[in-house]
Design a protein that fits this description.
about 400 residues, seven-stranded mixed beta sheet, DUF932 domain-containing protein
């Protein structure tokens, strides 16, 4: 399985993985956990200088492992900039323009709004910079600026709890791919033991990747995708996902998603350290919910019912496919570049039906290097099917 890893600089924890193995995802998450720093700080302790977040006057955390210094310089990611814009009510497009064209004006704007409410508290999620012997700490990374009531549900802990839930469900499964971005973690799980025949859905379809024929392999297997965000970009979710074997296209059914949101109570100022009991209760709940969701999503009855629903619309023949795809992409706000790719995949797929549009959307999603964009496009496959069938 191909892998792509992104690391912005030597002092930054690795943040990216696309189509990675589970073992590689675990390695990255373990390294990130070693660098993480989460702190509740008042606005009076935060300042922007040269476009970076400066933390000043926050008490260090002293533990048996040593002293955790909080004060320092943290370079914001794009996600952190979005949180800053949201929390200070600065239009995001304007903040981005200032960062690109006039950083001193960005500093002035952010600091002015921070001074308006000096006692207002935020949670800053960051990666610590590292330093060598006798050297000052290097610049860290500001990952997100969040509400002080944001509940920490970290990727590594959530992954282990979810995999425990999968194990408790008793279904034979395998992890087929993992993605990690600045925003989210994605873990795709599949059970080939729960596979059904779907000849109507795959009649006449060819894989746009290798030309294999859906008539010869009309099989769909059950699965789901686990997602979580550590930076406020979404809840922990388990979403059912059917996998078409001839091309590995994935169909996610977002209407049936199971979710757990990152909401908690107000927290004291300083470095955030969850108690063992609080964390244990949260993870036990995640494990239990995951096991329940897996038992539902990996049942043959569930998969068969969903496939039959899709088949009803997928067989609709399209009189003017190009116009239909134009309509579908406009309706779903899919950009011009993705629209052209979808049209190309539609032609190579050979199905001149609404189902062919659905397949073209999911196969295009597989080719995107941005995991967040790929997941968002895949989630539009079933709405695209509905829109294509209605347009005709």
């Amino acid at each position: 399985m191909t892998q792509q890893f992104a690391e912005r600089a030597t002092n930054v924890a690795p943040t990216g993985a696309r189509n990675a193995e589970l073992s590689d995802l675990v390695r990255i998450l373990e390294d990130q956990n070693r660098r993480k720093l989460d702190v509740i700080a008042p606005a009076s302790a935060l300042r922007f200088r040269e476009g970076n977040v400066h933390v000043e006057g926050v008490e260090s955390l002293i533990t048996e492992d040593g002293v955790t210094d909080v004060d320092g310089i943290y370079r914001p990611t794009a996600v952190a900039d979005e949180g800053i814009a949201d929390k200070l009510r600065i239009p995001l497009a304007y903040l981005r323009r200032m960062r690109a064209e006039n950083v001193p004006l960005l500093d002035e704007n952010v600091n002015a709004w921070l001074r308006e409410e000096p006692q207002r508290r935020f949670m800053l999620r960051a990666f610590r910079g590292e330093s060598g012997p006798g050297m000052p700490p290097s610049e860290g990374v500001a990952r997100a600026l969040l509400s002080d009531s944001y509940k920490l549900m970290d990727n590594f802990d959530m992954l282990l709890a979810a995999l425990d839930g999968v194990k408790q469900s008793g279904h034979p499964t395998r992890v087929t791919g993992c993605d990690l971005t600045d925003r989210r973690m994605y873990v795709r799980v599949e059970s080939e033991a729960v596979a059904i025949q779907a000849p109507e859905l795959l009649r006449g379809y060819r894989s746009p990747f290798d030309g294999r024929n859906g008539d010869e392999l009309p099989v769909i297997s059950a699965g789901f995708v686990i997602t979580n965000s550590e930076v406020g970009s979404g809840a922990y979710t388990i979403t059912p996902r059917a996998v078409i074997q001839v091309c590995r296209n994935g169909l996610t059914e977002t209407k049936d998603v199971m979710r757990a949101v990152h909401l908690g109570g107000k927290q004291d100022e300083g470095v955030v350290s969850w108690s063992g009991q609080t964390q244990r209760k949260t993870l036990e709940l995640i494990t239990s919910k995951t096991a329940d969701a897996v038992r539902t999503f990996l049942s043959r009855e569930y998969v068969e019912a969903k496939v039959r629903q899709v088949e009803a619309a997928a067989g609709k023949t399209l009189d003017e496919p190009t116009k239909t795809i134009e309509h579908v992409t406009k309706t779903l706000s899919i950009g011009a570049e993705a629209k052209d790719m979808i049209l190309s995949h539609f032609v190579r797929g050979g199905q001149m039906t609404a189902g062919g549009v659905m397949q073209a959307v999911t196969s295009t999603a597989q080719t995107l290097t941005d995991a967040d964009q790929a997941a968002a496009l895949e989630a539009l496959a079933l709405p695209a099917l509905t829109a294509a069938a209605a347009h005709g």
